[in-house]
Design goal:
350 residues, alpha/beta, Rossmann fold, 5-stranded parallel sheet, 14 helices, 5 strands, 55% helix, 7% strand
C-alpha cells in the first residue's frame, strides 16, 4: 500500500469512461491510465498500483487476459482487480472471479458505488498486509524462541553425556561416535531429516543409564563376571527412566531403551524381536556394536573396523537389521567413512 494516497490504475479503451472515473476518483487517489491491455500489464509491473479497475471488452487483449497475466506474475499477483464492464451475465462474472478478481461492477455505474467498493478492497488489502507483517513478526519470534530452546536442550544433552564419560573415561567419545555413525546409516537408508535428528539425540544419550553402574565394573580389566554383566544390562532401563518424561519430538527414550534388543529376541532388557524393535533402535544397535567392537576396551585391545564389520555381517538379518548392516558396510568399504574424532566435542549435537 502506497504511504500517501493509494494508486489506482484505470484500464479502459473508452475515453468517456476514463474521464468519468478520473473525475470520480482524482480527489482521493493517485491515478494511472492505460487504454489497452498491453499497456496495463506494463504499467502494473512497473508501478505496482494498489488496485486495478479493469474493463473487459478491449481490442487485442481483453480484460480477462490482462487479469490472468497479472495473477500469473508474482510481482503483481496480489494487486486487487475490480472488473468494471457492461457485461453483466452471470457466466462473465464467474469467469472474472475464477481468474482472481475481487469484485465486479456493472456499467453504467454509480460513482458512489465505485468509490465505496474501491475503499472496501483497499481496506481489506491493507488489513491483509498488516496481518502478513504480524505473521512474519510472530514467525521470527517463534524461530528465536525455538533456537533458545534448542540451545538449552543441546547444553542439557552435552551435560548428561559428559557425566557418563567422566565416570567411564575408557569409552570417552563413544556416544558421539555412535551418534555420528547411526546418523550416517540412517541417511544412507534414505530416512527423513527429522528422523535422523531423533537418532542423533538417542545416539548421544544411549548409554546415559550407565550413570547407575559402578565405576569399578565399567573400568575393570578382564572378562566380566555373570553378576557384573547382569548389572550392566540394566543400563537401558535406567536410561529410559531418565529420558521418558523429556518431551522430545522423537521417541528418544524408546530408542535408547531398545538399542540392545536383537532381531532374534536374544537382546535385552525386554527380549523384543523383529519389527517390535523400532527401526531407529535397530540402526543404533548396528552403530553401537560397530563402534564398540572396533575400539579399545579395558578388558580387550581394539579389534579394528574390519573385524567389527565382519561381526555385524555374520549376524546380518539374524541379530542385526539387514538394511542397517548393508548401509554401515557400504559407508566404510565403499565411501571411506571415518569417525570424526577431532570434531566430536565441538560440533553441534542438535
Amino acid at each position: 500500500m502506497n504511504p500517501s494516497r493509494p494508486l489506482v490504475l484505470i484500464v479502459d479503451d473508452n475515453a468517456t469512461n476514463i474521464d468519468l472515473l478520473v473525475n470520480t476518483l482524482k480527489a482521493d487517489y493517485h491515478l494511472g491510465i492505460a487504454k489497452n491491455g498491453l499497456n496495463a500489464v506494463a504499467y502494473a509491473v512497473k508501478h505496482k498500483p494498489d488496485l486495478v479497475l479493469l474493463d473487459i471488452m478491449m481490442p487485442e487483449m481483453n480484460g480477462y487476459e490482462v487479469c490472468a497475466r497479472l495473477k500469473a506474475n508474482s510481482e503483481t499477483a496480489s494487486i486487487p482487480i475490480i472488473f468494471i464492464t457492461a457485461m453483466n451475465e452471470t457466466v462473465s462474472k464467474t469467469r472474472g472471479f475464477e481468474l482472481g478478481a475481487v469484485d465486479y461492477i456493472t456499467k453504467p455505474f454509480h460513482t458512489a458505488e465505485v468509490k465505496a467498493r474501491i475503499q472496501t478492497h483497499l481496506s481489506l488489502e491493507e488489513m491483509r498486509l498488516q496481518l502478513q507483517s504480524q505473521n512474519l513478526l510472530l514467525a521470527h519470534q517463534v524461530e528465536q524462541k525455538t533456537a533458545e530452546i534448542r540451545e538449552i536442550l543441546d547444553a542439557s544433552i552435552r551435560s548428561m553425556a559428559q557425566m557418563i564419560e567422566i565416570r567411564d573415561p575408557y569409552t570417552a567419545g563413544h556416544m558421539q561416535r555412535v551418534a555420528q555413525l547411526a546418523c550416517a546409516i540412517a541417511e544412507k537408508m534414505g530416512l527423513e531429516t527429522g528422523v535422523v535428528d531423533g537418532i542423533r539425540i538417542a545416539g548421544i544419550l544411549h548409554d546415559v543409564g550407565k550413570i547407575r553402574i559402578p565405576v569399578s565394573i565399567l573400568s575393570r580389566a578382564g572378562r566380566l563376571l555373570d553378576a557384573e554383566f547382569e548389572m550392566i544390562k540394566i543400563h537401558p532401563q535406567i536410561a529410559f527412566d531418565i529420558l521418558k518424561d523429556i518431551p522430545f519430538p522423537w521417541p528418544v527414550a524408546q530408542m535408547v531403551f531398545q538399542h540392545h534388543e536383537r532381531l532374534d529376541g536374544s537382546g535385552y532388557p525386554q527380549g523384543l524381536s523383529g519389527d517390535a524393535i523400532l527401526l531407529e533402535a535397530r540402526i543404533l544397535a548396528v552403530a553401537d556394536v560397530t563402534e564398540a567392537s572396533s575400539s579399545f576396551r579395558p578388558y580387550r585391545p581394539a579389534r579394528g573396523i574390519e573385524a567389527a564389520l565382519a561381526k555385524i555381517a555374520e549376524q546380518k538379518g539374524k541379530r542385526y537389521d539387514a538394511d542397517a548392516v548393508s548401509a554401515c558396510r557400504d559407508l566404510f568399504i565403499d565411501q571411506g567413512f571415518k569417525f570424526d574424532a577431532d570434531n566430536a566435542d565441538s560440533a553441534p549435537w542438535l
